[in-house]
Amino acid sequence: MPQPALAIANRILDSAQERGISLTNMQLIKLIYISHGWSLALLGKPLVDEQPQAWQHGPVYRTVYHAFRESGSRPVGEKALHPFSGTEWVADLEEDEQAIVDQVVEAYGRHHAFSLSARTHQVGTPWHQVWNDGRGKYRPIPNDLIKSHFDDLNARNS
User: pTM value?
Assistant: First the structure.
């Protein structure tokens, strides 16, 4: 079942910490997006229940951006908390979903934020299609575009 973006953010922060990796807000958002894309392609199901939006620096999960924006370009220091209860968001992931998150952190977690952003800006990516086709800034990036893109990446890497 798709999880809140903030729950996935916290799980990625845990996975990164286990590997000695610190993440900025931009890196975290891109890793959520990449995890979501691979889940769509490899498992045929969304990982995140929130659609990313096309922002200037690539796909952004608005809730994650706002939760961690005060960290700026510094590493995120705290996990996301529920606004009313003050408890941490916790992802309830199946084993295959957790494996994707961990593999994405392992493969991309040490990449600089701008390197990750550049990957999402390539011609033909879902972000590029939404940003440049007249739908405009801050528009949702549909799962079908994301899935198709990651299906193509998977086919190229096979």
Answer: 0.95
